[in-house]
């Protein structure tokens, strides 16, 4: 790594403490301006390994920055990925506790349940669809540890792509029975429409985004495992929420997923 010896552990502790103490912190790149994307993924992996050493279990992968418009806005040309852990899973019937979060936002996604191991560096969207058992509606709660949700690409990658919580709808559909690119979605907050989107907003097709992630993981000799959950990327922009807010995302042919924050 380009970081000086010991700086990686310092950064990981810095981010983990921010999450545990629910406090916004200045960007890692403010102190380490030379941090590269490659460095950041190494930090991310070590951060996840630290969480796993404390009892968390890996349950899947999440995609970020899968909107071409958002990529252009940030001056980048590819998405990002992070990991899902078992203690990030929240449930529709159990209110989310705002006091456990910093400045959360929520975004609507399509979740994939992977039915067979998938690894390589030339994986296609068709390969992803063949390996997928079911898809379902999902909400991802993102909660950047950085001040005012402002960060550079290496910052957000090191922070496991702002991961916090995710919720899955109760309806799981055979992927062969749905045209994911053309799935329409409406997300409402407190009964008022907040955002709309389609599956095509996710790199043209959610399976394309997952294929990209598998190929990136393949470069690290990693991949997806049977039983993994993959959040394929947001169908619309994220919206902020606070205590007392209710959110529901309704998807064509996929049903809905809802959350309440108290």
From TrEMBL:
Coiled-coil residue windows: none
SUPFAM superfamilies: FAH (SSF56529)
GO cellular component: cytoplasm
One of the Pfam families matching this protein, by short name: FAA_hydrolase
Single GO MF descriptor: 2-oxopent-4-enoate hydratase activity
Keyword terms, alphabetized: Lyase
Recorded superkingdom: Bacteria
Sequence ranges assigned to domain Fumarylacetoacetase-like C-terminal in this UniProt record: 104-257
PANTHER family in UniProt: 2-KETO-4-PENTENOATE HYDRATASE, ACID HYDRATASE
Name the record gives this protein: 4-oxalocrotonate decarboxylase
Lineage of origin: Bacteria, Bacillati, Bacillota, Bacilli, Bacillales
């Amino acid at each position: 790594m380009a970081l000086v010896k010991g700086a990686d552990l310092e950064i990981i502790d810095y981010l983990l403490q921010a999450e545990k103490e629910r406090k916004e912190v200045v960007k890692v790149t403010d102190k380490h301006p030379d941090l590269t994307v490659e460095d950041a993924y190494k930090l991310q992996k070590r951060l996840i390994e630290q969480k796993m050493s404390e009892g968390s279990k890996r349950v899947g992968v999440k995609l970020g920055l899968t909107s071409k418009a958002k990529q252009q806005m940030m001056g980048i040309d590819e998405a990002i990925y992070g990991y899902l852990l078992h203690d990030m899973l929240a449930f529709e019937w159990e209110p989310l506790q705002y006091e456990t979060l910093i400045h959360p936002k929520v975004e609507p996604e399509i979740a994939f349940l992977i039915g067979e191991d998938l690894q390589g560096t030339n994986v296609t969207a068709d390969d992803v669809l063949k390996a997928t058992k079911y898809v379902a509606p999902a909400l991802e709660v993102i909660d950047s540890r950085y001040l005012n949700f402002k960060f550079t690409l290496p910052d957000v990658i090191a922070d496991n792509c702002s991961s916090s919580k995710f919720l899955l709808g109760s309806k799981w559909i055979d992927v062969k029975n749905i045209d994911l690119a053309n799935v329409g979605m409406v997300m409402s907050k407190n009964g008022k429409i907040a955002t709309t989107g389609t599956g095509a907003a996710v790199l043209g097709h959610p399976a394309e985004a997952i294929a990209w992630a598998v190929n990136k993981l393949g470069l690290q000799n990693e991949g997806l495992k049977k039983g993994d959950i993959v959040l394929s990327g947001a169908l619309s922009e994220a919206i902020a929420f606070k205590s007392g807010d209710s959110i529901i995302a309704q998807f064509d042919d996929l049903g809905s997923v809802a959350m309440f924050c108290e």
